[in-house]
Each structure stands twice: as C-alpha cells, then as structure tokens.
Amino acid sequence: KVKSNGTYEVGPAANGQIHRGKLTSTDLKTVTDTLLLDSTSAENCAPRANDETAPLDQVVFKQRDREATLVRHNGSEICYAIATEQGKQLHKAIRELAKKHYPLPFPDECLASIDAVEELYPALSHCSVDAECSNIDQIYSPIPIGEVQYVTTRTCSRINPMIAGNAAAVAGAQLKLLAARDAAKSVCGTRIKRDACAQIDGALEGFQNHRAPAVCGQGTCQPNPSLYF
Fold this sequence. Notes:
Elements: E1 7-10, E2 19-22, H1 25-32, E3 44-47, E4 57-63, E5 66-73, E6 77-80, H2 84-101, H3 109-118, E7 133-136, E8 142-143, E9 150-155, E10 164-166, H4 167-172, H5 174-188, E11 203-208, E12 215-217, E13 220-222
Antiparallel strand pairs: 1-2, 3-6, 4-5, 5-6, 7-8, 7-10, 9-11, 12-13
C-alpha cells in the first residue's frame, strides 16, 4: 500500500508483521508520473506472455470513496483499466518499489529492529499547543525554538529521523531512543545504510530550525506546514 503522501505499508507476514516507511520523493514520483486520475476506462485484457514471471497481483487505486482496480494479473492474462502502456509502466513501478522495500524472506530482523525505533515516535509526539513541540536533532535532543541549527529530515541511515516531537517527552525518552537505534544498527550491520550512500550519518535533506518551528496539529507535534517532504 502506497499513500499519496509517500508513506507505505508492506505485509502482513505470516505472523502479522507489517513494515511501514516513507518513500523518497523520487520513488513516489515513479508512481505518480504514471497515474492519471481521470484515465480509467473499460478493462482491456491480453494473454499473459510466456516470459512474464511476476506472481499474481493487482494494483488498486483508492481516493476517498472511489476504488478501482487499475491492473489485474492472473495466471493466464493481464488486464488494464487504464491505457495499456500506462498500465504496464504503473505495474512495473509498483513491483520495483515492492522489491526494493519488501525484502524476502519477510519478516526480516533488520526491518523489525528499524520499526522498533520508529514505533517509539508517535507516543512522544502528543501535544495540546505549539509551545509543547520542538524540532528534534540527530541524537534525539529537542532543539530550542529560535535556535539556529540544522534539522535533518533524511540521512543515509534506513532509520528515519524523528523530525518533531513533544520536547519534554522526547527529552525523557532520549536514552531509550538511542538504545533502540544502536540495537538496530547492531542487528542490521551494513544493511542499515541506504543504497548508493557513502556514509550512514551524513545529512541528505533538512532545514534550518529557526525558520520553521514545529507545530501542534490535531494533537500531534509535526514539522512546520511550510515545509514539504
């Protein structure tokens, strides 16, 4: 499952495990570039080619109360509810993302340890007012509002940084967060590093703290809405 904001879910595994994460803007673009919202049409099916080895699957598009199966692949044919070439590109993009973010065998101890870190974030992000929130640095320390400091939003580590949170809650859980991150690094070894990255801790993307203070929105501390990830 890939949502419009780039977040995704893979699974469940036999034990019910689900892995969650967020696509890079480049990965998300590979999907959105092939998906035209008004391109649905009558289903067009073609015999499955002899060299096609992809397992049975389908691509389903959901928007509010609308749901449509855009690509359907079974043992004997492939059907498209959009232009055939567009359907092929969309199907290929989704399968490549699945291969990239859904390692087999699954569940995977490395992914599970990464999830164990990121699953700590939501409970440390509750808020009532903006003043309770702050941007968070790479060692899980709240950054004072107005302080000139770079906030990292993406690094070469597969562990997504905690960008914003409840300042008091994060400060109180800092050691727990660091321990969980160290455990993930130990379990994953070299796999903790994203592909094509030279080092783990280098900042790839971010913003200046004093220009975009964290805010409280719908009871959750979150990055300033002026930012786009």
